[in-house]
């Protein structure tokens, strides 16, 4: 019975090379996995932010919505001719460019996209029915305000209706910004129409 001595085996240098190879492969693999995870997380955040911005409205009504019957001067009339209201950004809302905003009027018999006549006086009826404008801006951050609604600003919107609204008529004015959800204002003309009426 004979015993053979076998002294073959890894040397220290070979073992180090194999160890370094394993470490490099593991590092590259973990880098790829982490990179893919960060990319997926970033995309998920973008989807969430986009969904929230598209689903939530950035506008809110400030104060009351007024229905006006020009020429009534205290007398009771039969119809409302134009509507005034003020809008501002909701808390955390992004600025809204009113040059790109679309207003749509509707009631039981009418559906009209209103024309933007910003810069003119709607109350004086210079351009006919079915238009809207911004006659005044409050809390503007600069001396020459623009049509970009910014935080703390308030835009007064005047809407000259496509036709007069009779008593007890239910109507809606939908504000559609270029980004974000539409904001709907639904009101009812009162049973007794004065020169100026708060609409509920």
| Mean of residue pLDDT values | 80
How does the overall form come out from the CA principal axes? Answer: elongated
N-to-C SSE string, H for helix and E for strand: HEEEEEEEEEEEE
C-alpha Rg (nearest Å): 33 Å
Spatial sequence of strands, sheet with the most strands: 6-7-9-2-1-12
Using brief descriptors, characterize the structure shown.
37% strand; 6-stranded mixed beta sheet; alpha+beta; 4-stranded antiparallel beta sheet; 1 helix; 200 residues; 22% helix; 12 strands
Question: What is the compact description of this entry?
Answer:
The protein is 22% helix and 37% strand.
Give a description of the structure.
- With 200 residues, the chain is an alpha+beta fold.
- 22% of the residues lie in helices and 37% in strands.
- It has one helix and twelve strands.
- The longest helix is centred in the first third of the chain and has 44 residues, at 12-55.
- The protein is elongated and about 105 Å long.
């Amino acid at each position: 019975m004979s015993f053979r001595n076998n002294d073959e085996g890894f040397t220290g240098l070979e073992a180090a090379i194999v160890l370094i190879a394993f470490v490099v492969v593991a590092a590259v693999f973990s880098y790829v996995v982490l990179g893919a995870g960060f990319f997926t997380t970033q995309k998920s955040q973008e989807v969430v932010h986009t969904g929230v911005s598209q689903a939530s409205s950035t506008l809110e009504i400030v104060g009351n919505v007024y229905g006006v019957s020009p020429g009534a001067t205290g007398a009771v009339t039969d119809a409302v001719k134009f509507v005034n209201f003020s809008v501002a950004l909701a808390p955390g809302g992004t600025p809204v460019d009113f040059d790109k905003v679309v207003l749509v009027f509707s009631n039981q018999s009418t559906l009209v996209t209103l024309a933007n006549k910003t810069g003119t006086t709607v109350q004086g009826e210079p351009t006919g029915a079915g238009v809207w404008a911004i006659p005044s801006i409050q809390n503007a951050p600069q001396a020459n305000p623009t049509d970009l609604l910014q935080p703390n600003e308030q835009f007064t919107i005047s809407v000259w209706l496509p036709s007069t609204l009779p008593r007890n008529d239910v109507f809606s004015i939908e504000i559609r910004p270029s980004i974000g959800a539409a904001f709907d204002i639904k009101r009812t003309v009162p049973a007794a129409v004065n020169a100026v009426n708060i609409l509920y």
